Amino acid sequence: MVNIGIKKINEIVKKTLSVIEKSKGAIFDISESARKEVNNLKDELQQLKNDASAIIAECKKLELKVAKSRKKLAEINRNFDKFTEEDMKNAYQETNDLMVKLAVCRERERQTILRRNDVERRLKNALETVSKAEQLVAQVGTVFNYLSGDLQRLDEHFENTENKRQIAIRIIKAQENERRRIAREIHDGPAQAMSNVVLKAEICEKMAEVDMLKAIYELRSLKDIVRNCLKDVRRVIYDLRPMSIDDLGLRPTLQKYIENYSIEHSIKIDFRVKGDDNRIKDSNIALAIFRVVQESLNNIHKHANATHVSIQIECTEKSILLRVKDDGKGFDVSTLHGFDSKKDSGFGVLGMKERIELLEGDFLIDSTINYGTTVRVRLPYEIQGGI
User: Fold this and answer.
1) How many Å apart are CA 54 and CA 105, to the nearest integer?
2) Is the pLDDT of residue 160 over 60?
3) Which residues pair with 310 in a beta bridge?
4) Which residue, 341, 357, 355, 348, is CA-closest to 177?
5) Beta bridge partners of 319
6) Is the pLDDT of residue 239 over 70?
7) Are 375 and 365 in contact (CB under 8 A)?
8) What angle do helix axes 212-240 and 161-186 make, rounded to 10 degrees?
9) Does domain 244-380 have CATH number 3.30.565.10?
C-alpha cells in the first residue's frame, strides 16, 4: 500500500512538473513578445515625437505668416484708396489660404499628440507586462526547481528541517534571479550588438558593390560594435567568475578590480595585504573574499556617499582576516536584525553573511550613523568538511 501511494505521488509530481514547465515556456513566450512590442513602441514613440516637433515648428511659421498677412490686409483696408480691387482680393485670398493651412497644421498637431499619448500608454502597459512576465518566470522556475531539485547535499549540512527548507528556497531564488539578470544582460548587450553586426554586415555587402569607400567606413563602424560586444561578454564572464583568481591569485585580481573601481567611481581606496597571501590555496575561500569586497564596494557606492575606503587582508597563522572600512554616512545595524528569511533578500549584507558562514567563517558588520561602516570577515585557509 505504501509503495502504491508513493508511485501515485510520484506520478502527480511528474504531471505537475510537466504542466509547470509548459507554463514557464508559455510565460517566457509572452515575455519575449511583450519585449518586442516594447522595442517597436519605443521606435514608434520616438518617430511621433520627431513628427510632433516638426509639425509644431511648421505651425509656428504659419502663425507668423498669418499675422503678417492680416497686418497687410488691415493696412489695405485702412488705405483702400491707394490699392486696387485686385490687390485687396489677393490679400484676402492669401490670408484665407494661410488660415486654412494653419488650421490643417493644428489638426495634424492634435492628431499626432493624441497618437503619441496613446503610444505612451501602450508602452507603459507593455513594460508592466514584461516586468510581470519576468517575475512569473522566476517564480515558476523557483517552484519547478524546488519540486525537482535534489537537496540531499543540504541535508548533510543542516539538521533543522525548517532552516533547510528556507535556505533551499533562498538558494533556488538566488539562482533564478541570477539567471534572469545574466539573460537580461546578454539580451540587452551582446545579443543586441550581434544583431547590429548582422545588419551592418548586410549593409557593407550591399555598399561594396556601389561605393567601396562607404563600405570601408561601415566596416570600421562594425569593428567598434564587435569590440564593444566583446567587452560586454568579458564583463558578463567576469561577473560570473573572475578567471584571474585561478590564474594570478587573489591579490592581483583584487588590486586590478579596486583600481578600476576607484577610477570609475572617483573614490580613494587604500588596499594592502599583510602576511603571506600565497597560503590562500582554496579557490572557494579566495572567491568568497573577492565577493565580499565586491559587494561591500557596491554598497558603499550605492548608499554610503563615502570619499575614502580602506581594505586590508591579513593572513595570520590560522585564518584570513578581511576588513573593509569606509567614512560614509553609516546606518543603524539593528535594522538588519528584523530580517524575515521567507523574504527574498538578494545578495546584500545578509547574502555576504550566509556565504561566509557556509565556509565556516565569521562575518561582522559595525556601523554608526555619520561615522561610516566597517565589515570584518574571518575565514579558515581550508574548510574542514569540504565543499
Assistant:
1) 11
2) no
3) 270, 325
4) 348
5) 380
6) no
7) yes
8) 170
9) yes
Q: Which residues, including other chains, have CB under 8 Å from residue 287's CB and lie 6 or more apart?
A: 241, 245
Segment among 8-22, 80-94, 333-347 with least mean pLDDT? 333-347
Collect contacts of 73-81 with beta carbons under 8 A, ≥24 apart: none
If one counts every other C-beta atom within 10 angstroms of the C-beta of residue 238, the result is 13
Q: Which three cell numbers stand for residue 154?
A: 543540504
d(CA 232, CA 252): 22
Bridge partner residues of 57 (DSSP): none
> Angle formed by the axes of helices 349-358 and 161-186, to 10°?
120
Cα→Cα distances 157→202, 203, 357, 358, Å: 56, 58, 12, 9
* Rounded Cα gap, residues 180 and 133, in angstroms: 12
Residue 119 has pLDDT above 50, yes or no: yes
Amino acid 95: pLDDT: 85
Give the list of residues 6+ apart from residue 240 with CB closer than 8 angstroms, or none. Answer: 182
N- to C-terminal Cα distance for the chain?
39
% pLDDT > 70, the chain: 75
Cell (9 digits) for 277? 597571501
Secondary structure class of 1 (helix, strand, coil): coil
Separation of alpha carbons 79 and 74, rounded Å = 9
pLDDT digits 0-9 by tens, 128-141: 887 777 777 676 66
Instruction: For strands 373-380 and 308-315, give the pairing.
Output: unpaired
Query: What CATH code is assigned to 2-149?
Result: 1.10.287.950
Cell numbers placing 238: 567576469
Instruction: Check: pTM over 0.70? Answer yes or no.
Output: no
* Interacting residues of 344 by C-beta distance below 8 A, sequence separation 6+: 170, 173, 177
